[in-house]
Amino acid sequence: MFPRLKGKLLLIFMKKSLMALGSLFLLGGTATAQKVEFQEYKLDNGLHVILHQDKSAPVVITSVMYHVGAKDENPERTGFAHFFEHLLFEGTKNIGRGEWMKMVSSNGGTNNANTSDDRTYYYEVFPSNNLELGLWMESERLMHPVINQIGVDTQNEVVKEEKRLRVDNQPYGNLLAQVKKNIFKKHPYRWATIGSMEHLDAATLKEFQDFNAKYYIPNNAVLVVAGDFEFANATKWIQQYFGPIKKGADIKRETFVEDPITETIKATYQDPNIQIPMMVASYRTPSMKTRDARVLDVISTYLSDGKSSKLYKKIVDDKKMALQIGAFSFSQEDYGTYILYGLPMGANTTEGLLKEIDEEIVKIQTELISEKDFQKLQNKYENQFVSSVSNVEGIAENLASYYLLYGDVNLINTEADIYRSITREEIRDVAKKYLNPNQRLILDYVPSKDKAQN
C-alpha cells in the first residue's frame, strides 16, 4: 500500500505476512493526518534533496535511497544489490573497517538498511545535535567506500547465513521466490532479492567495484533529512559534504515487457521445512504507480485483512477448512504480484481451499460489495495513512520512495485521496480484469518427498 510497507526486504515481509497479515490494520475508528510539509531541491551533481522539519522530538533522520535493486543485476550475478546493503557498512576512506556501527552507537544513534527489487535504502537516526555527523557519514558511504576483498569475503559469509536463516531453513521461506520465478519470464523480478550464493561466490572484486561505480552515484539517489533541525545548517552541511561528489554517468535502464498470461501456469515446489502443503494462487498485476494496483490493494484488504475478513470468516472460522488464509497485493515499480495463500486443516485439500477462494472472487466480480463493508475499508485505509506518517522515520522513507519510485513526492499527502476515491464499481471491474483463472499461477507448494516419508 504505502511505500514504507512496500519497501522492506521481501524475505522479511513474507515471514511477517504469512504469520500475521491481518495485523497491518490495528487502529480502530478514523483519524485525520496532518499534511507533511517538505522542501526539495537538487545539487549540481544530480543528488535530489528533500527536507522535512519536525521539532516534536529531538531526533533527526539522515537517509539516502538509491535507485538500484535486484532488478538491475546481471542475471548471472544476482544478489548484488542486497549484498551492497551489507558491504557498504564495511567502512570508508575515513571510517575504519568495523567502526561504522560503533560510531553511530557511541553518538546515541541507530542505523539500518534494506533492499527491494527496485531500490536500496540506508538511514541513521541520531539525537538532533548530530545531524552533521549523519550527513558526513552518508556522504562518506557515497564518496569514499572501501570495497576490498576482505570486506567482500566477510559479507559473503554474512549473506549466506542470512539466506540459511530466513530462506533455506524457514518454513515457506521460498514462497515468494517461487512465485516470482514462475510468474515472470522476461523481467528481472523473476529472481529472488537475496540472489544466488553461487553467483556471489563467482563474482570478482572488480565486478563489485564496477557495480558500485555504476549505481552508487549522486544522480541515482535521493537524500532525505527529517526531524529536528535548522534548514540553514542542513543546507550548508549538505552542500559541504555532498556537493563535491562527482556526478556519475547516466544509467541506461532496459525495459522488460511481459507477455500477458492467457492460460493457467502450473508449478510445483518441494519445501523440506514444512509438513502442511500450502495453497498458492498468484496473478501478475500492473505497476504500483497505477490506479488498478491500488484497487487490488483494497481487494486484498477486503478478502483477508483480519479475522472479520471474507476469506478468514468463511474458510477458517465457519467451515474450519484452513489454519491460515490470506491475500496480499505485492506492488512494485514495474509490475506487481497478487498472491492468495492458505494452509488446509485436517483432511481438507489445497484444491478445496482454492475453490472456496474462487467463489469469493466471483462474488466480487459480479456483485458490488456492501456499503457497510465499503465504509469499513475506507476507515481502514484512513487509519493506515495516518499510521504511515505518524513518526518521522516512516515519513523519511516515504518521502524518498515517493520521489524515487513514483516521481511525485507530494503523494505522501495525496495518495490517501486516491484510495478514498476508489468506488465499489471499480473494485468489481478490477477484479474482473485481473483475477481470472486463466491469468494466474497455481503453485503446488508441498513438503519434500523425503519429509513426507518421515
Automatic annotation (TrEMBL):
<dbReference type="InterPro" id="IPR050626">
    <property type="entry name" value="Peptidase_M16"/>
</dbReference>
<dbReference type="InterPro" id="IPR011249">
    <property type="entry name" value="Metalloenz_LuxS/M16"/>
</dbReference>
<keyword id="KW-0732">Signal</keyword>
<comment type="similarity">
    <text>Belongs to the peptidase M16 family.</text>
</comment>
<dbReference type="Pfam" id="PF05193">
    <property type="entry name" value="Peptidase_M16_C"/>
</dbReference>
<feature type="domain" description="Peptidase M16 C-terminal">
    <location>
        <begin position="203"/>
        <end position="380"/>
    </location>
</feature>
<feature type="signal peptide">
    <location>
        <begin position="1"/>
        <end position="33"/>
    </location>
</feature>
<feature type="domain" description="Peptidase M16 N-terminal">
    <location>
        <begin position="49"/>
        <end position="190"/>
    </location>
</feature>
<dbReference type="GO" id="GO:0006508">
    <property type="term" value="P:proteolysis"/>
</dbReference>
<dbReference type="Pfam" id="PF00675">
    <property type="entry name" value="Peptidase_M16"/>
</dbReference>
<dbReference type="InterPro" id="IPR007863">
    <property type="entry name" value="Peptidase_M16_C"/>
</dbReference>
<keyword id="KW-0378">Hydrolase</keyword>
<dbReference type="GO" id="GO:0046872">
    <property type="term" value="F:metal ion binding"/>
</dbReference>
<protein>
    <submittedName>
        <fullName>Predicted Zn-dependent peptidase</fullName>
    </submittedName>
</protein>
<keyword id="KW-0645">Protease</keyword>
<keyword id="KW-0482">Metalloprotease</keyword>
<dbReference type="InterPro" id="IPR011765">
    <property type="entry name" value="Pept_M16_N"/>
</dbReference>
<keyword id="KW-0862">Zinc</keyword>
<dbReference type="GO" id="GO:0008237">
    <property type="term" value="F:metallopeptidase activity"/>
</dbReference>
